[in-house]
Structure formats: C-alpha cells, structure tokens
Design brief:
The structure holds two protein chains of two kinds.
Chain A lengths: L6 H4 L1 E3 L6 E3 L8 E2 L6 E2 L6 H21 L3 E5 L2 E5 L1 H10 L3 H30 L6 H15 L4 H12 L1 E2 L3 E5 L1 H19 L16
Antiparallel strand pairs in A: 1-2, 3-4, 5-6, 5-8, 7-8
Helix pairs in contact in A: 2-4, 2-7, 3-4, 4-5, 4-7, 5-7
Chain B lengths: L1 H6 L11 H9 L1 H20 E9 L11 E4 L2 E11 L6 E8 L11 E5 L2 E3 L2 E3 L3 H4 L2 E5 L9 E3 L13 E8 L10 E4 L2 E11 L6 E8 L10 E5 L4 E5 L2 E5 L3 H6 L2 E5 L13 E5 L2 H5 L7 E7 L11 E4 L2 E14 L4 E10 L5 H6 L7 H14 L2 E9 L4 E8 L15 E3 L1 E2 L2 H18 L2 H48 L4 H29 L3 H4 L24
Parallel strand pairs in B: 1-9, 2-8, 10-18, 11-17, 14-18, 19-25, 20-24, 23-26
Antiparallel strand pairs in B: 1-4, 2-3, 3-4, 5-8, 6-7, 10-13, 11-12, 12-13, 14-17, 15-16, 19-22, 20-21, 21-22, 23-24
The chains are: A alpha+beta, B alpha/beta.
C-alpha cells in the first residue's frame, strides 16, 4: 500500500495559515515568513509538545481548586449555602433530577477529565513517535477540538444565574472562586489542544515509516 | 570540528546556547504560576483556619453539616463541619471549625447552644432562624485556658458573659413558680433575670442566682429585700378588695422583685451577696423581727378553724403567729383542753416597752414583767373568729374588762398566758342561756289558758252576731232616710232655699237704707230735728240696677 509522501520527505513546508506549500529552508532559530500571508513558516509548531504539556499540566493543577472550592453561593431567605461542582451534581441526583445531574456531571467532570486524558495520551504517543492507532488518535483530537467550544457551559450557567437571580433578601446567587479556576481549566485545555500540532501523530511514520 | 579548532590558534567559537531551551522553560512558567497560586491559596486557608472544637448536644435538630453557622454577637465565626454520634450513641457531636480570628472564643468555660425559634412566656426569640435555619450561639468564657470539648446547652443562657451587671444569691424554701429566665423587677421595671437555681446540699433550701443588669445593680444595697413577685395577691381588707400583681407575664411565669424599705439606703451590695427571698412584698419589707419568744395558751373550747400560722394580734397589730396546736388534758379539772403554742416577737412592741417604767434585766425578763403587769390589768388571750364565712380563728391578746383575776407565774417557762373563751363562744353561751330560760317557761300552761280565752272570745262574738247586728242595720236604714230628707231640703230648687235667698235680699236692702240714714245723720245731724236740708245730696252709692239683684229664676 503506497502511502502519500510526507512534507519532510519532499523538503517542503506547508503554511499553517494559508496552506501555501513552500520550499523548506533550514534556518535554525529564525522563522521564515510565508511569501503569501506573512505567517512564520515551520515544519511543526515549534515547541508544540512541550507547550501543550505545560498548559495541560496547568489545567490539571487548576482543576483541583475548581473542584474543591465552591463555585456558587446560593442564599435563599437568608439561609446561605456554598456548593462545589460535585456537591451540586450529587444534590441534584439525590433530589431526583437525574437529567440535570448528568448534564452537570458530564459537562464539569467527565468532559474535562476526558480531555486531560486524551491530550495526555496524544502528547505522550506523539512524543514517543508511536505509530499506534494513528487514525483513532486523530479522531480523538477532532473530538477534543469540538468539545472545546462547549466546555465553558458551567461558567456560562453560573454567570447567567448569578446575574439573573438577584432578589435582594429573598434569593441571591453569587459566583465563588471555584468557577474562576474552572474557567481557567477550560482555557488552558483549549490552549493545550491548540498548541498541539496534530501532525505529530504521524511523525512516527516519517523516519523509516516505509520500512 | 572541535578537534580542528583546537589545533588551530583561532578565536574560540562561542558556545551556542539555543534559544529554544529558553522557550521551553518560559512555557513551563505557566504551570509553575498555577502551582504557586494553588499553594498560596492552601497556605491562606491554613493560615485562616482556627481551632476545631467538638460540641455535644442532646439532639442535632436543625443542625446541618457544612451549613450551620456558629455566631457570636450575630457575626459568623465558624461552621459545623461534621455531625456524628458519640461512642455510646447517646449524644450528638458537632465538630465546628472556628475562624482564626474567633479562636479566642474557644475557652475552657465558653458556652455553646443552638439558637432555634422559641416561644416562651416572656416573648418570642430566634424568629430569624425560622427561615435561615438554626445556628449555634457562643458565649465567650472568662477562663484563659483554651478548650476543645464542650457540652452544648439545651437552652440559651439567660445571662451572656460580658453583660454588665452583678449577680446575687437568693435563698428560699422552695422555687415556687420561678424558673431560669424569670424576670427580676425593681419598681416594676424589669432589671434582670434568674440565671440559675440549685438545690442546697441538704436538700432543704434552694439557692437562686439572679442577675441584675447595670445600671440597676447599684440599687441592690445591703438593706435591699427580695421577694417572690409571682402570681396574684388578692386581699380583702377594710378598704376593699385589693388585687396586686406585677405583670401578666409574672402571673403566669413568676418573677422576683426587690426593693428597700423607705428610709433605708445602705451600702451598695457586693457581687454574689446573699439574700433571703421573702414570700411577698409585705413580708420582705417588714422590719426585722428580732428574737422570738415562745408562749403557751390553754383553751377549754373547740379550736376548730385555728391553724398553725394563724396570726397572734395585740390590739389589732400582728405580734406573732401560732406554731403548734396540741390536745391536752387537765387531770385536776378533768377536762380536755387545747394547748396552743405561739411565738411573739417582742421587738414589735419595742416602742411600747420603752415607754413602760424602766425595767432592768434581759429582754425576756422585761417582757415577762410587762406581761405580768398587763395580765393583772386584764390581758387575756382569746381565739376570735377572723372570718365568719370560713370560720378561721386567730389569737387576739386584748384587755378584757371585768375578768376574774388569775394567777400568772412569771418564773414558769415557757410563759403561759391566761385565756378567755372567744367572743363567738361567749355569744354562743349567752344564746344557750337564753334558750335554757325559754325552755324553763310553762309553755303548756300558757297555751292552755290562751286556748280557753279564745273559746270565750268566740262565744262573745256569736252573741254580737245574733243580737247587735240586726238593730244596727235598722238604725242605719233610718239614718239613711233622715239624710235623704235633709238632702231634699237643701237641694238647689227647694222652697226653703229660695225663701232664704229672698229674705237675705230684703235684709241687704234694709242695711243699705240704714247706711244712707246714718250717712245723712253724720253729715247733717240737725236733720233729726229739722228734716233733710234741701242742699243735701245723697253721696251714698245709688242702688244698683234692679236686674242685677234679681233672684235667679229657673
């Protein structure tokens, strides 16, 4: 089965922005701009994997306070209570609102954790230049990219609810520091996913891939 | 390449440090900052974390893990973190995480209680917790030792630790309707509360601790008396029916009042000073009784209605009370008697005793000698009826006129005072003697004589009926006829009456002629001799027209 050639095999570089294929010029330490759009040309995103690792780690670190600290403070008729994400999910589940509990759980726990795992898997395999299940890994990457748009759901819910439910004295909902960390988790995972160059997935096939 | 450069004396090539190494480390700053932020938050949490204490309660009603707050002066100072049972499951243990700045609240003698809505006789409290849920209240203790394990109070403490004021101890025989939290009044202003009560060691008395708030605590002086202001004081006196209460709440829940007898001021009392709790205001403000003197009275009458505690009065003034009533037997007279023990407080007579002739010796001797004197002048004890409806008796010491002299032994102890039977008994005796006299009357004879007299009377009356009555009827009829005749003569159209009228008119005319004659004669006396002078005028009124003097004709 004849596989398509890699850019490095042909010594060409594709522009990330406009897709123009240029001749590869080995100039270490300096970026060559694309003749069409002016974007810096590089074979792979420089330091992509390391940057992705760093951002992913930041996201994981932020995920701890996001779960431990309360995200929302509800005061109903003078009786206030702060709840963390998991407490909220459990509360909804025990009160019988399984649907809402599932939505909260999926949006706040399952999806971020899945993203961490997928990104870690992608980064680890790419770093090791593994040739295992490249298509599936690509599919996972697309999934992460897609889910990224929806990850801010929790933050939006808290923001909207806190803005709407302000009946002085009766009911009052205000955000707490946890939601900030959750937002940072989402941002950092998105940045990590952006930093990761999906072409690394097939890097294992470049050298001796045909062998 | 390096080998060749070493061989040639050329300027050393600088070691190229790739920029990308810097880039890597710069990117890694991001997670580093995240870690630092996380660590700083951890440190901050750790820094603000105060002591963790355990409070045991009887029940966890209203308490919620992670939600129930601990408040001191309505400021949140901590949260209940966990609620569990103690080892034997008899009580609830609430673990409370106090804030760092509230660490000073966790002292050895600090008190914790659950604030719930309460509806009591003296008001409603904790209404805010109806909506917000219960919270744990704290009262900071005075100890300097930090504490960790506490037993929660079941009800809020009456007196919060740093309330300005002083507490006092009251001793009483029983608690009555008082309770923790019962109000303390001064001139009907609530100035404090009953903080606690405790049964004495021997179980014979109750020690109440009352707290009087500042600035009212300065009115508690060494001369102050406390009394139980519970309930309603109803008295029916000579000045009418009197009902005295403190407040509605006091009627229902009881209370303590204090005051000072007028004219006494005294020094401000020290904190925790002890007082007696009198049963009412009158007893509290009564002058101190001083030493008591026991005396015995022997009555030869029924003392039904006399109770222990009944007053002993001298000249209408309370002098003491009855302390015992025992049946007794006099072997000489062979009669059953009642032996009544009384105590009198001679100090209540101190003014009188001072005015008596100077007596020396002890107070008792003086009293006995005075009594001896008074008995010689007719002082007797008497059981009198205080209330005709209930038949309550009291002992009156009074001078009874014309009583036989009795012996009074001044050396005999205890003093025995002579008695006379009570006024009601005397009345009874008199009534009995009257009844006896009535009994002795020959009522049968009297009745028989009366009967005979009535029979005679009956006979006489029947004679009157048979003889006198017909004649009387006849007489009356004749009288009636006579009156009818008289009536006919006197009627308006009777001839007698008309002729009388005419006669009278004639007489009138005659009288007028005589008057004219007399007038003429008085003016012209010569007319008797010469006849009427020609110029003479008759000034007498002329005769009225004949019509007016006409007799009415019918």
């Amino acid at each position: 089965m004849n596989k398509p050639p890699f850019a490095s095999d042909l010594s060409v570089v594709g522009c990330h922005t406009c897709g123009l294929v240029c001749e590869h010029q080995d100039t270490p330490g300096r970026a060559v701009p694309c003749p069409r759009c002016g974007s810096p040309l590089h074979h792979r995103r420089p330091n992509g994997i390391a940057r992705a690792w760093a951002l992913l780690l930041t996201a994981v670190i932020c995920y701890i306070p996001a779960n431990v600290l309360p995200v929302m403070h509800t005061s109903l008729l003078g009786r206030g209570s702060s709840s963390t994400i998991m407490e909220g999910a459990v509360e909804f589940w025990t009160s019988g609102s399984y649907g809402i509990a599932l939505v909260i759980f999926i949006a706040s726990v399952a999806v971020p954790c899945a993203k961490f795992l997928i990104l870690a898997l992608l980064l680890a395999t790419s770093q090791r230049r593994s040739r295992w299940a490249t298509r599936e890994r690509a599919k996972l990457y697309r999934m992460v990219e897609f889910v990224g748009y929806w990850s801010m759901l929790d933050v939006l819910v808290v923001a909207v609810v806190a803005a709407l439910v302000q009946f002085q004295g009766l009911t009052d909902i205000s955000p707490r520091i946890g939601i900030l960390f959750f937002g940072m988790v989402v941002i950092f995972t998105m940045l990590a996913a952006m930093s990761f160059d999906p072409r690394h997935i097939w890097d294992g096939e470049i050298n001796g891939g045909d062998a | 390449m390096n080998d060749s450069s070493r061989a040639l004396p050329e300027p050393g090539a600088p070691t190229v440090i790739p920029r990308r190494k810097w880039r890597i480390s710069l990117v890694w700053l991001v997670p580093l900052i995240a870690v630092l932020v996380g660590l700083s938050m951890l440190v901050q949490t750790w820094m603000t974390e105060g002591p963790v204490i355990n409070i045991t309660f009887r029940t966890a009603a209203g308490l919620e893990e992670g939600k129930t707050l601990v408040k001191y002066k309505d400021v949140n100072v901590g949260t209940v973190t966990t609620i569990g049972l103690n080892e034997d499951g008899s009580r609830v243990v609430a673990t409370v995480a106090l804030d760092k700045d509230a660490a000073s609240l966790a002292r050895e003698d600090s008190r914790f209680w659950v604030v719930r809505p309460r509806i009591g006789i003296d008001g409603v409290s904790g209404v805010d917790t109806l909506l917000s849920g219960a919270y744990i209240g704290v009262d900071r203790g005075q100890s300097t030792e930090p504490g960790k394990e506490y037993t929660g109070l079941e009800s809020p403490p009456t007196v919060i630790g740093d309330t300005p004021g002083r507490s006092f101890v009251l001793h009483t025989e029983d608690l009555g309707s008082l309770d923790v939290g019962s109000p303390v009044y001064y001139r009907r202003i609530q100035v404090g509360r009953v903080a606690s009560y405790q049964l004495g060691e021997d179980g014979k008395a109750v020690a109440l601790r009352v707290f009087v708030n500042a600035p009212y605590d300065r009115f508690v002086t060494t001369e102050t008396r406390f009394w139980n202001a519970s309930g309603v004081d109803v008295s029916l006196g000579a000045d009418g029916f009197k009902l005295q209460t403190q407040s509605i709440a006091t009627i229902l829940a009881g209370g303590v009042s204090f005051g000072t007898s007028s004219g006494l001021s005294g020094e401000p009392a020290a904190a925790d000073a002890a007082y007696e709790l009198a049963k009412d205001q009158q007893a509290a403000l009564a002058p101190p009784d001083g030493p008591s003197q026991t005396a015995y009275l022997v009555f030869e009458q029924s003392l039904r209605g006399l109770t222990v505690g009944a007053p002993v009065q001298f000249d209408g003034m309370d002098l003491g009370k009855v302390v015992s009533i025992k049946p007794d037997y006099d072997p000489v007279k062979r009669r059953f008697q009642s032996r009544v023990g009384i105590v009198v407080f001679p100090q209540r007579l101190s003014d009188i005793m001072e005015k008596m002739p100077a007596l020396d010796g002890t107070d008792e001797d003086r009293l006995v000698r005075m009594l001896q004197e008074m008995v010689a002048h007719g002082l007797r004890a008497q059981a009198r009826t205080g209330n005709l409806l209930t038949g309550q008796l009291f002992i009156a010491l009074d001078f009874i006129p014309n009583t036989p002299k009795v012996a009074f032994d001044p050396q005999h102890r205890p003093i025995t005072l002579p008695t006379v039977s009570g006024s009601f008994d005397q009345l009874q005796e008199r009534v009995a003697s009257i009844v006896g006299k009535i009994d002795k009357m020959p009522l049968d004879n009297i009745a028989r004589n009366l009967d005979a007299s009535f029979a005679n009377l009956n006979k006489a009356l029947s004679q009157v009926n048979a003889l006198v009555l017909p004649q009387a009827t006849q007489t009356l009829r004749q009288a009636q006829q006579t009156i009818g005749a008289a009536h006919g003569m006197l009627a308006e159209d009777a001839t007698l009456r008309q002729s009388v009228g005419q006669t009278l008119q004639e007489i009138q005319r005659a009288a007028r002629s005589v008057r004219t004659l007399t007038d003429l004669l008085s003016r012209y006396p010569e007319a008797v001799v010469r006849g009427r002078p020609k110029h003479a005028t008759l000034e007498a009124p002329r005769e009225p027209p004949a019509s007016t003097i006409e007799t009415p004709q019918r």
